[in-house]
Amino acid sequence: MSTLVDDPRIMEFDVRTDEMLINMGPQHPSTHGVLRLVLRTDGEVVSEVTPQIGYLHRSAEKIGENLVPRQWIPYTDRMDYLAAMNMNLGWALVIEKLMRYEPPEKGRHLRVIIAELGRIASHLVAMGTYGLDLGTFSPFLYAFREREKILDLFEEVCGARLTYSYITVGGVTADFPSGWLQKCEAFLDQLVPVIDEYHALLTTNAIFIKRTASIGTMSPEMAIDYGCSGPVLRGSGVDHDLRRDGEDIYTAMYDGYAFEVVAEKDGHYPRDHQYPAVPHEARLGDSWHRFYVRMLEVIQSMDLIRQGIDRYSLATDGHGEPMKLTQKLPKGEAYLETEAPRGQMGFYVVSDGNAIPWRARARSSSFSNLWITGQLCRGCLIADIPSIVGSLDVVMGEIDR
Amino acid sequence: MALYLSNFMWSWLAYTIAALVHVVLILSLVAGGALLFIWLERKISGRIQDRLGPTRVGGKFGWLQTLADGLKLLTKEDLMPEGADRMLFRLAPYISFAASLAAYIAIPFAGGAYLLGAAPWVAQHVNVGVFFVLAVLGLEVFGTILAGYSSASKWSLFGAMREAAQVVSYEVPLGMCVVVPVLIAGSMDLSLIGDRQAGLFTNWLIFHDPFTFIAFWVYLTCATASVNRAPFDLAEAESELVAGFHTEYSGLRWSFFFMAEYGSMLSVSLLAVILFLGAWHGPLPIATWLGLTAEHGAIAMNLGKLLGLINLLLKAVVGVSVMIWVRWTLPRLRIDQVITTCLKYCTPIAAGMLLGATLWQYQFPSRSFFGLTEVPQAVYHLREGPQQAVQNSGSSPESREGTDVPEDEIATVNHPARRGGQVSASDTIPQESIARLR
Amino acid sequence: MGEAIYWPSFFFLLFAAVACAFAVAVLLATNIVRMAFYLVVSLSATAGLFFLAGAEFVGAMQLMIYVGGTMVLLIFGVMLTSQERFVEMKTWSGDWVFAFLIGAMLLMILIPAAFSVPQWSGLDRAEVASVSEVNMATPLGMGLLGVRVDQLDRPHQPDVAAQPDGAESQKEPARQVPIQPGYLLLFEIVSVHLLVVLVGAAYLARARRAN
Amino acid sequence: MSGRAFVDQLKQQFGNLIVDANLDNIDPWIEVAPEGIVDVCCYLRDEPSLAFNYLNCISGVDYLHTDEKKAKKADWEPHCEVVYHLFSMTHKHSLVLKVLVPRWKEGRAGELPEVPSVAGIWRAAHWHEREVYDLSGITFTGHPNLRRILCPEDWVGHPLRKDYEMPSEYHGIRGR
């Protein structure tokens, strides 16, 4: 491990001082849970960052080897607890893939609506906490205000506000209650102008841009090499979204939906003329771009939900029945990744023909996204660390499982 | 006050009582101010964030929330880290608070620059008041730095180092901005600067010329930096340094830092109001229209001063509210960006404004409101003293302004010999005693 | 008038005692941060003495420059360069002897100088009360700008007195602006000198790390 | 590209290092000999027609029946598997590789089996290999920093092994 900064300028002009080893976390306001970053600093300049994880390890995979798939759904809730619906969906889909089961059309649209609502809720939190990391408190509460409305919708659907266990293997636990779709549409309508406010408060704020532009820049090659995914990957300009590029069983959900992957192409984001322009200080792959991708994805998700509502209303078949608890899984193994809000959430299931899987494995997106911090934070200032870690938007429940 | 009291009692007792009254008044202002501002901060932030803020303690508006919190802080365990430098750790909050409090000694709360026997309401009249307040406010950071250093915590140490770096950067432009009104008023005496802005709001120094107008905003920026408020709250940046210099503090000690912060917020606001925003004079000279001046007797004069006090405090509270508003809206800058802002942008701007204001004063002396109006006669009275005012009353101000202003105008009107009228005892001081002093 | 306590004297003694006591504490302390803190207290007390003497400008200057300066010294001289967190400093007995000698010599010079001031006995109190109001900062400021107020009584250039109102200028000697050199040049020289020192210090502190 | 084509191409390139392939499974997999995994992965990443530049996941699976009756019925010998899920951002296709190793190195209980590390090929493998080492007990030779990642450094045992027993006490905390 090197103790000196790679950047030669820092060595050249640095006043001779002592290096200091600091533990940022596991209890620290900006580490989003129980992440511990070991910093080696020279004054305010950070020469090395080592993330230490595992403080929230709950043996979810071991538990998965002892429960039938539907019983493990609540444990997936607790992985990415800010986007529990998307976690449920990932596990449900991989079991369905193993069983070669195809949910009915109505159920697919329902899942799209729910998954995209979950994505909006998750990105709102990401936005709010990012503001918090940069020292502004108000956007956090604005984001939570909007998220509460989504949680109200979820509560009406499944009775829970955080750990839903709603999407399950074979279908969902219950159909939408009557009048829910109208409420959902009303929510989307009022969210449109609010997003513009967030752009004014954060995206285009001069201080915000100063704090995030050209900070923690990762090249597309680097992002791919480190296994980054989701907005972190797309923030570097990699045109990759599993909703379009994933496996058939997952992309089938989005068949016929019109959407563009939010990634910069030729200096432009899709439909970016409607949204604030990229500031000239920002470089592709920096914290600002990762934030911006999330903000555009909220709008994209709103669009997808509207399409989903239309299709759902037209569909005539059922939404799918949950699998019986005693149902035996076919022998074999399956791996499937879905596009969760924080990136590609992968589940791997190995079955020996029993109702309980032989092995349940979760590949979490934040796990891979966090690993790159050590590289990104090298040579930055202490104040940049919340700015970089916040832009990666990790959830420790998902990393430690 | 002491002089008045000494008519009735021993003078040593009179001075003691006078001093105690001042101390009690200032303490209650700072403590009461902190109570109010913490409540205000919660209410304003609440409203900004679509919340209600405190609603229960002490009636509908949660008036007593701060008091309840104060009680809670009192009962909290007083913790001290194992490796702390115990003496400095204990002292640091008091140093901060004492410095924040000491600035109030020289801040006048209502007008009258010893003119016509109308003494300003000030605990101790310091003729270099501006300088004194700045110097003492600068000491507040000493407490911060000692706290950071003695806490034996790395986060605290970082906070202290940031604070030190920040001090070096904001002090320079802050001082320059303060010099601008000093230059125009021709005095470092806060009560004189305040009374220079009597009359309509057009006489406020912020509107004196374009340069003072810009200097005010630079002052506001640097003053925010000097009291460690967002976006310059780097010493306690909670998302980076946990709580910065006061990470290890709890209970009452911590609340002293808090009081010091709100105390300095009020004092820099007061300074801004006195230097730029007309001090104790309202936008319209209502007190003069109502006849609440010295000419109509002591009661009228003191009523007028009370009005002035309310005026001053109201404006200062608005200033504090602006700081609160900014805090709950903007993200925090990075330390290098703070230093860049202060040294690379604010300092040259402030220097430019100082130069510009000098030249403006040279070109358009005795004119106010961007050169559109004249400084009214009352101000001449003030500047030149009663004797000269009587002489000048014969010739109209227009004829005075119409002619070419001699180059030495500034020097002349400010000349101590001509300003004798400001000094209450000037006509009684024998010339030889002055000569002896020199 | 019962003068049980004469406050100026009381505060003079208080500030003087504090200044001296903390100056001694600086010598005796071993922790460098505490030393700096004691120095700050001592200097602040000295500033208090200045205020008491009516030299408010100098007092404020003392607070701003010396006390503030010590703080900066503390930060950049001690905190950023120290090898350990709480640096202990020990004074060797030889240093004590030297320090004592030098201090004693300085004291021997200062005491006669102090007693040679004619007003050492002090003005009477009534007189002090009457003059303490006129110590304005203005003369100093004017001096910086080039107008030596203290030398106004001297004869001035006649052509400068081209005033619009000659009669008035005759009455008021203040109108006749004297051409006396102020402190501006000296002040500038000192400040440039300080700047050079600062740049030099920064240069020296900038160490090139070995590869 | 389909599973069959991958197998053929790899067999042609590496011969015996490609031990087996299962094309009937829903995700077809290719079994690679442990000693060949680095070369195969390097080839998979660098061959432009394959360009597997993205490592999704590395999983460890332990095959062991602790119940003797079930062990008799099982159609496999006890072993450990390391499963690599690869993806190509350029061609948008995926591949599953497997490496089979004995549960203990050379049959000596307590000595962890070894697999060469692919951390030099995809940086993403760093943490995934650490996790597999931590939970499934497989050593990755050549890994730059192979430490436990989720469990504490002084934890005993590898929890995802089928014969793992929860310690009865850990630093005074009751386990069972």
Overview of the molecule:
The complex is a heterotetramer of chains A (401), B (438), C (211) and D (176). Chain A has 401 residues and is of the alpha+beta class. Chain A has a domain at 57-199 and 229-362: Cytochrome-c3 Hydrogenase, chain B. Helices cover 47% and strands 12% of the residues of chain A. Chain A is built from 17 helices and eight strands. In chain A, helix 3 packs antiparallel against helix 4 (84-99) and helix 6 packs antiparallel against helix 7 (180-203). The model of chain A is unreliable at 1-16 (pLDDT under 50). Chain B has 438 residues and is mainly α. Chain B has one domain (76-437). Chain B contains 17 helices and two strands. Chain B has a two-stranded antiparallel ribbon. The two termini of chain B are 29 Å apart. In chain C, 64% of the residues lie in helices and 0% in strands. Chain C has helices at 7-28, 32-52, 56-79, 93-116, 125-131, 138-145, 166-171, 184-205. Residues 156-179 of chain C have low confidence and may be disordered. Chain C has 211 residues and is an all-alpha fold. Chain D has helices at 3-14, 37-46, 68-73, 125-136; strands at 18-22, 29-32, 54-63, 79-87, 94-101, 114-116, 139-141, 169-170, 173-174. Chain D has a single domain, classed as 2-Layer Sandwich (Beta Polymerase, domain 2), CATH 3.30.460.80. The longest helix of chain D has 12 residues, at 3-14. Chain D has four helices and nine strands. In chain D, the strands form three sheets. In chain D, strands 1-2-5-4-3 form a five-stranded mixed β-sheet.
CATH class of the domain at 57-199 and 229-362 in chain A: Mainly Alpha
Number of helices of chain A: 17
Q: Briefly, what CATH class of the largest domain in chain C?
A: Mainly Alpha
Name given to the CATH architecture of the largest domain in chain C: Up-down Bundle
Oligomerization category of the chains in this entry: heterotetramer
From the alpha carbons, calculate the radius of gyration of chain C and give it in angstroms.
24 Å
SSE string of chain C: HHHHHHHH
Poorly predicted runs of chain C are: 156-179
Radius of gyration of chain A: 21 Å
